[in-house]
Design brief:
The protein is mainly beta. The protein has eight helices and 24 strands. Helix content is 11%, strand content 29%.
């Protein structure tokens, strides 16, 4: 892919040309005017007015309209080795609100989707505990349960953008994330049932799939807000999301949220397993690697307009929409720039504001048809700001593919088309 970079340094012809049309600000207007009277689509009877439709019995499990068939997860063929080890990206540009529908949630698997009969599934607690235990699914459902809305983000989300703009669409640049309501049992209760020994400082969840995914998690996190979940958005976990049981590790990188959870071992030190040595470390410019970089820092992206959601209505009132999230807690503010970061406007946060969940933001503008360099910048409740990509590279170099929460830039052209670019 081509690295498209636009400089903010004045005096260069192409760069100056791009900036010449930028509006310093915009005033939101009234929604677009109604079509002229006489439009046959409103004045004449249509087939759906004339004929009876199918009963719900014909669709016992609800599915989207056939006119929404394009709203699906997608992969990038060259990104992973095979279908048994692949990534499927959430179509962020097609969604609104903060909850991701179950059938559109990002997912990553390393050994294919395990097909498990819940009646045969077991969860073992062993290691530094007073009493090693094995639970059935029915056993687990007898514990007190909680409902919590959290985002899940892969540490490699936006990873292909470290060296420059690569993938032309927010589904591909930022779609390794989803946000749902999980129902499950606090991990703390399950560990307490087995009885933690005083030297138990870490836990290691293990998946039941062929890849046997494992990660080391400090006991403080395990006893804080982790859930052993069996439902998402009210229904059973989808098979690709770990049915019948998965771990939820709020605010921390997604590969720690072990799917098809079968065992949790308690130990006195981290295990340094395959997925926390060969992968999911941050390779710095000097060749050293940062390990145990669990928290997903503040991040945001404008989902519309974006390369997969260009402006189709022409000039006039429009809504800039996007999502923001932080593993540190709630999003406090999101700013939006129309001119590549020179000027910023505070966006409107809408919908629930929940800790370690997605937040929806909007900026209503009146577009005059000029080029725009759209950016968003999130700040969480603890004052952590989303950095520019150059600030990240100055701190870490360009070797890593993990934890890229840099500000994303979309170049909106006069014809409404949108392209992934960078400003410097």
């Amino acid at each position: 892919m081509t690295d498209k970079t636009i400089s903010k340094t004045p005096g260069l012809s192409r760069r100056s040309l791009l900036k010449a049309g930028f509006a310093a600000g915009a005033v939101a207007g009234t929604a677009g005017a109604a079509r002229a009277a006489g439009d046959p689509l409103i004045t004449e009877i249509q087939d759906w007015n004339r004929y009876l439709g199918d009963g719900v019995q014909a669709r016992p499990y609800g599915v989207p309209s056939e006119f929404e068939a394009h709203v699906v997860r997608r992969d990038v063929e060259w990104l992973t080795a095979s279908t048994e080890s692949s990534v499927n990206f959430t179509p962020l540009h097609e969604l609104d609100g903060i909850i991701t529908p179950n059938g559109l949630c990002f997912e990553r698997h390393h050994g294919g989707i395990a097909d498990i009969n819940p009646a045969d599934h077991r969860l073992m607690i062993n290691g530094l505990v007073d009493t090693p235990l094995v639970f059935t699914m029915e056993d687990l459902k007898r514990f007190p349960r909680e409902n919590r809305v959290y985002f899940l983000e892969c540490a490699a989300n936006s990873g292909m953008e470290w060296r420059g703009s690569q993938l032309n669409g927010c589904q591909y640049t930022h779609g390794m994330v989803h946000c749902v309501m999980y129902t499950g049992v606090p991990l703390k209760l399950i560990l307490e049932e087995a009885g933690l020994k005083t030297n138990g400082k870490w836990v290691m969840p293990e998946g039941a799939d062929a890849s046997a995914m494992t990660r080391s998690i400090p006991i403080e996190k395990a006893l804080d807000d982790c859930l052993v979940a069996f439902k998402m958005n009210g229904e059973a976990l989808r098979p690709e999301q770990g049915y019948p049981l998965r771990l939820v590790v709020p605010g921390w990188e997604g590969n720690m949220w072990v799917k098809w959870l079968r065992r949790i071992e308690v130990g006195d030190e981290p295990w340094h397993q395959r997925e926390e040595t060969s992968k999911y470390t941050d390779l710095l410019e000097n060749g050293k690697a940062r390990r145990f970089t669990w928290v997903m820092d503040p991040k945001s992206v404008i989902t519309s307009p974006s390369p997969q959601a260009p402006i189709s209505h022409g000039k006039g009132p429009m809504v800039i929409s996007g999502v923001a999230w932080s593993g540190n807690g709630r999003i406090k503010r999101v700013d939006v720039s129309l001119d590549g970061g020179r000027n910023w406007k505070t966006a409107r946060l809408d919908g629930p504001s929940l800790s370690k969940a997605m937040h929806r933001f909007y900026l209503d503008i009146d577009w005059d048809g000029s080029d725009m360099l759209l950016q968003s910048r999130a700040m969480d409740e603890h004052g952590f700001f989303q950095p520019t990509k150059n600030e990240l590279r100055a701190a870490r170099g360009e070797n890593s593919i993990y934890h890229n929460n840099g500000i994303q830039t979309w170049h909106v052209k006069a014809d409404g088309m949108v392209e992934n670019v960078e400003v410097s």
